[in-house]
Design goal:
Strand content: 25-35%
Strand order of the largest sheet: 1-2-7-6-3-8
CATH superfamily: YaeB-like
Shape: globular
Pfam families: TrmO_N
InterPro entries: TrmO-like_N, YaeB-like, YaeB-like_sf, YaeB_N_sf
CATH topology: Elongation Factor Tu (Ef-tu), domain 3
Number of helices: 1
Distance between the termini: 36 Å
Largest sheet: 6 strands, antiparallel, barrel
Family: Belongs to the tRNA methyltransferase O family.
GO molecular function, one term: methyltransferase activity
Oligomer: single chain
Order of helices and strands: EEEEEEEEH
Number of domains: 1
Keywords: Methyltransferase, S-adenosyl-L-methionine, Transferase
């Protein structure tokens, strides 16, 4: 397979400094677009949406910590071993994170958000408006351990 090269569109400014889990609903941050590549027109109309989907790079993960097999989420012995693609941990092969967060405002090239689970300095690869039609169709299911893990995440 061919390698894919991506350039960040911007960076997370503010919010949490360290990548610890839970309580992300207390965080506010700014996604600051790269002014050498984008003007305010790139964000025109975004403020009509309440939520965003943000794709970002887990830039602080040590490459030696990348996981490609099964493990217990958060190392919890009460939860089953599941493959890296059956969880959303940051030690992923391509170090990609995806988050849904509330859009607070757009100010020039600054996108103010609430609940983004990315830390200060995180390279942002893409921003998309959340549209209900792109959400799951029909009922969703997940194992009990996933519900327990996410109980205090937001």
């Amino acid at each position: 397979m061919e390698a894919i090269t991506l350039a960040p569109i911007g960076v997370v400014a503010g919010g949490r400094d360290e990548p610890f889990d839970d309580d992300w609903n207390t965080e506010q941050a700014v996604i600051r677009l790269d002014g050498t590549r984008f003007g305010p027109g790139a964000l025109a109309g975004l403020d009509a949406f309440s939520h965003l989907e943000v794709v970002y790079h887990f830039h602080r993960v040590d490459p030696a910590e990348i996981n490609t097999t099964a493990r217990r989420p958060r190392g919890n012995p009460d939860w089953p071993e599941v493959g890296i693609f059956a969880q959303r941990g940051r030690n992923r092969p391509n170090l990609l994170g995806v988050s849904r967060c509330r859009l607070l405002s757009v100010d020039g090239l600054d996108v103010h958000v609430h609940g983004l689970d990315a830390i200060d300095g995180t390279p942002v690869l893409d921003i998309k408006p959340y549209m209900a039609e792109f959400g799951p169709q029909g009922e969703t299911e997940q194992p009990r351990w996933a519900t327990e893990l996410m109980r205090n995440y937001y």
